[in-house]
Amino acid sequence: MSLNWIKIILLTVVVAMGQEVVAQDLIARQAPVDRKLKSVDSLALQKQIRAEQSLYPGLDIYPVWTNGQVAAYGDAIVPDSCTFDLTGFCMPTTNTKITDIYGYRPRRRRVHQGLDVKVYIGDTIRSAFDGKIRIVKDQGRRRGYGKYVVIRHDNGLETVYGHLSKHLVKENQLVKAGEPIGLGGNTGRSTGSHLHFETRFLGIPLDPAKMFDFEKQDIVADTYTFVKKSKAKTARAVAAGGDLYYKVKKGDTLGKIAARQGTTVAKLCKLNRITRKTILRPGQILRCS
Q1: Domain 81-228 is classified in which CATH homologous superfamily?
Q2: Going along 67-142, which residue ranges are E strands?
Q3: pLDDT of residue 266
Q4: Where in the chain is the domain with CATH 2.70.70.10?
Q5: Of the chain's two ends, which shows fewer C-beta atoms within 10 Å, N or C?
Q6: For residues 38 and 48, what is the distance between their CA atoms, to the nearest angstrom?
Q7: ∠ at Cα 269 (265, 273), nearest 5°?
């Protein structure tokens, strides 16, 4: 083999090795770029998800967004449990007097699905949390909620505000906690001006007293955990009592109420600023815990 051929072969090998080194160097330099591009894509995706969630709160839980009915999620898959963040709240009203509680009403043979708070016509009613207005409707002077508002919140809860005298918001409007949404009233099936306030999850009514302490104008705890129950368990839970409030029935005594609610007469007297000799009135609301 001639010297020229040897030089050509060596040169070819050197060039090939140089190209491989350059390629490896390019790959090495490209790696951080790829990571940066992936990071940018991830941030863009996160931003898009946050934007969609702000437009439709609870997008990962609720099957639909509808301006129709309050309980519009009959086909929804209800999780076994779900914890809601209650921080960042605002009390719907500064009024503190509870006039009716959540629970079964034997006389009317139906469940009162919210908490009634005494307000006066024209009192400002505010959104409990950040969210989006789902329903703004008027059921008439003598029917149901009357003028009412339903809000789906960023934390996954929905709240209902009934018997309003005036709406201050529109459907699909974004609101912040504390933003005025209506004025107190006496519309719908109501015997006096008050706010009918409900808390719901996937259309399932939950006891507002487990989350909101209207007397202290505060939340009961920073979080509330929903636990799915069978109908039988729910019935037993209602019968067992132990709620934050109790509505006095005919024939009730402080002793009977204390035993039913798992507390003492002394504690009932202290919480309600009454004495053992106080005459209880049917329909009177007592705080039990």
Answers
A1: Glucose Permease (Domain IIA) (2.70.70.10)
A2: 81-85, 98-100, 103-105, 110-112, 115-118, 124-126, 131-138
A3: 87
A4: 81-228
A5: N
A6: 15
A7: 175
Measured distance CA(51)–CA(10) in Å, rounded:
61
pLDDT tens string 65-119: 999 999 989 888 899 999 999 999 999 999 999 999 898 766 656 778 999 999 9
Q: Kindly report, as residue ranges, where domains of CATH 3.10.350.10 are found in the chain.
A: 241-289
pLDDT of residue 253: 87
Average pLDDT, rounded, for the chain: 82
Give the residue ranges of DSSP H helices in the chain: 3-55, 231-240, 254-261, 265-272
Q: How far apart are CA 187 and CA 164, in angstroms?
A: 6
pLDDT of residue 18 exceeding 60, the answer is no
- The CATH architecture assigned to 241-289 reads Roll (3.10)
176 three-class SS? coil
The three-class DSSP label of residue 213 is strand
Looking at residue 116, its amino acid is D
pLDDT confidence of residue 39: 61
Cα separation, 31 vs 105, whole angstroms: 68
CA–CA distance, 227 with 86 (Å, rounded to integer): 16
Say whether pLDDT at 16 is over 60.
no
- 3-state DSSP call for residue 209? helix
DSSP designation for 278: P
CB 174 within 8 Å of CB 187: no
Q: pLDDT exceeding 90 applies to what percent of the chain?
A: 47
